[in-house]
Structure formats: C-alpha cells, structure tokens
Specification:
Number of domains: 2
CATH class of the largest domain: Alpha Beta
Helix content: 40-55%
Distance between the termini: 24 Å
Number of strands: 7
Radius of gyration: 17 Å
Structural class: alpha/beta
Oligomer: single chain
Strand content: 15-25%
Shape: globular
CATH architecture of the largest domain: 3-Layer(aba) Sandwich
Order of helices and strands: EHEHEHEHEHEEHHHH
CATH superfamily of the largest domain: Response regulator
Strand order of the largest sheet: 2-1-3-4-5-6-7
CATH topology of the largest domain: Rossmann fold
Number of helices: 9
Largest sheet: 7 strands, mixed
Length: 206
C-alpha cells in the first residue's frame, strides 16, 4: 500500500484525485493540503512514500514545496501536476528534482504508473499531449561520460547541490564542479538543467 500526500488548492480537484487514487487500489492518501506551506507542515509529522502536488498553489507552489523539502534533506519522490503544458514549468520541475511531471488530464492508470515508478526511484515526465511519457532509462556512459560523471548527473537530476553531490560521493566540491563542466561539454548543454533535459530526452537516466 503506497502512502501518498496530496496537495491542491482546489478542493473539488483534491477530493476527486483522492477518490480516484484510492479507487485504483494499492494507494492510500494519508495527507491532504491546500497549499505548499500546509503540505510541508503535514510532512513534518507524516511519513509518505510519494507526494502528488499541484504546481501552482497559494502561499507556496508545488515547486517551492519541493525545493524546501530538498533543502531539509527530505528526498521523498514528488510528482508535480499541472493544468497547462508549460515548458518553463517542466524545466523548473526537473531542476528542482521532481520525480515526475504530469498534466491533470492524464489517464488514471498513467498516474498510478508514475507514482509506482517514482517510489522505485525512476523519474517520468509527460510534457504534453504531443509527446509520450518519457521514462529515464538507458546508459549515460554511451554518451562518453565516465561512470563518475554519470553518477554526478543522476544526483544533479535528483536535485542535489554540488555540496551534497560531493558529500554523497566522497569527493571535493571542486572535483564536482570540474566534472559538471565536462558533462556540459560532452552533452553540448548550456547548464545543469539543460544537461538533465537532454539526458531525459535521450532516455539516458535510470
């Protein structure tokens, strides 16, 4: 049984999503919140397997809540929901370390699959109706990245800062920065987010 936190400022949508998720089976909504701040307060006292949050909410957005969780060292998978296909919101979600990004008109089974995948450590994004669901799988070393560079890019994709990457891998922050420069060059990416986007588009992250 997956324990889910659900955040949406529109009560009808929130209640509808809760009923839908619990109808699908194997999912229990244990936290409901109508804004990002309330979500953070609830997560301080409730353990969940994943968070499903609207991107745009009052007081603190879904992306803002995600960033706050990561700053606190909480890496629970967060799937962001949106009404409108917005490339900038997608890029911000990936940069913040979201585990998924879905339009609210996604099929119920797709939503369940994304939740289950997120709990298993995968990241799935559905940028819009013209693009299929993109799951992060594949081999980053096929692009010329070393094993350590691939590990660093996966951590960057998870929302880790340079300092956190360094601590996780037991290397210096300077070494991390050097590796990221090499990653950007090898992937022909302009910045960290662009590198993650290119890796996702190429099905290279797992």
């Amino acid at each position: 049984m997956l324990r889910i936190a659900l955040a949406d400022d529109q009560a009808l949508i929130r209640h509808g999503l809760k009923a839908l998720l619990e109808t699908l089976g194997g999912i229990q909504v244990v936290v409901e919140a109508d804004n990002g701040d309330s979500l953070l307060e609830a997560l301080a006292s409730h353990e969940v397997d994943a968070v499903l949050a609207d991107i745009r909410m009052p007081r603190r957005s879904g992306i803002g809540a995600l960033k706050a969780l990561r700053e606190k060292g909480n890496f629970v998978p967060v799937i962001l929901l949106t009404t409108f296909d917005d490339p900038q919101a997608l890029e911000e979600s990936i940069s913040a370390g979201a585990a998924g990004y879905l339009l609210k008109d996604a099929e119920p089974e797709t939503l369940k699959q994304v939740l289950e995948a997120a709990v298993r450590g995968r990241r799935i994004f559905q940028p819009g109706p013209a693009m299929p669901v993109v799951a992060q799988t594949g081999d980053l070393t096929a692009t010329g990245l070393t094993a350590q560079e691939a590990a660093i890019l996966r951590l960057v994709a998870g929302g880790y800062s340079n300092k956190e990457v360094a601590r996780h891998l037991g290397i210096s922050v300077g070494t991390v920065k050097n590796h990221i420069s090499d990653i950007l060059r090898k992937l022909d990416a302009r910045d960290r987010t662009h590198a993650v986007l290119k890796a996702i588009a190429g099905h290279l992250l797992s």
